[in-house]
Design brief:
The chain has ten helices and 19 strands. By secondary structure, it is an alpha+beta fold.
Amino acid sequence: MAILSKEEAQAILKKVISFSKADACEVSLSGSDGGNIRYARNAVSTAGQISVMSLGVSSTFGKKTGTATINEFDDASLQKVVQRAEELAKLAPENPEYMAPLGPQTYAESTTFNQATAAMTPDTRAEMVGKSLSVSKAANLEAAGFLENSTRFNAIMNSKGLFAYNKGTDVSFSVTVRNQEGTGSGYVDQSFNDLNKMDTLALSKIAASKATKSAGAKAIEPGKYTVILEPLAASDIIGNMFRGFDARSADEGRSFMSKKGGGTRLGEQLFSENVNIYSDPLNPELPSSTWDGDGLPIKKTQWVQNGVVKNLAYSRYWADQKGVQPLSMGRSLVIEGGNQSLEDLIKSTEKGILVTRFWYIRSVDPQTLLLTGLTRDGTFYIENGEIKFPLKNFRFNESPVIMLNNVEALGKPVRTGSGMIPPMKIRDFTFTSLSDAV
């Protein structure tokens, strides 16, 4: 029962709304069905299948709102959860930022659902993991990984007549491969909506190659270096940046988008001219829902153009306060790049460092977005366009804002997590100390 059709979800939500006696009622219904396999030391350790569905009701009297959730769907249970939300609303304090529910909206049809992914079975997962394990076993390496797939739906409805529905699929895979001595490590992490794009064999070969090549790492002095960031590494550090595109935090002086003395940096050139960032829920490589949690339509939006900040995200409340239209950030963020491959960027580098990924990233200064963290799972020294030897890992102190001002070249974007990110060649990246991490 976890995956309901649009019509089935709509029927349940209409019934819930009909039970409401509140001034306003908003209902959300979601469910997912999927499975996973976890493995370590070249052997499967756990496997599971998960199917869940839940419903949430928010009832409002004036500006007082109460919320209750339930995972039972008979009429008596639905009436009970509505009654409970209304009881809580009467006890709640007024919300000074309350916004009345939206009326009916028009949404583009999303492309998040893929039938091949939805049809995955335990046998499918076992075969995919078997391919990964064959790589590590053949090379006398040890692998630990996780494969997961899910089909999910989300639907919302309110007493003003708004209704939205989305169904999507996802398959994700990550694996760490190490040598027997524990001195070399490689890692990959990938996800898609479409199962046919997921190649666990090829990905595991990349991780295994890095595990072998990263053994016997040499130490060099920390400092400022030209770096080649693989898309995963770039995503690790840049993902923190997008929270700063929230207009309210910028207006209130709480982000790197805040201007000294008041106001925001909307319209300013904050990044290199070759940095362009947009979001598009209909991007075929990175599809996402075409509506957000409030029911606002999500459309293609340019956030940065030639290094200039073109838009900030406005919640409905903050947009109302500022007299502008609300704008949702969306999930499908794309950093545009060129046609160069990772190998092309390496060949163009006289001296530099290749970084597979970062981890244990922590904020140092939210105002400048200064971050610290460690390299991991394959860090290599580049000289005269070739990888010469593996490097002992570093701690870095760097801001993605400064980093995107020091862009020398961008490669071809690839899907990495919830973004399309290119490999990046960055000058003057700051490494502050060495790390014993492998």
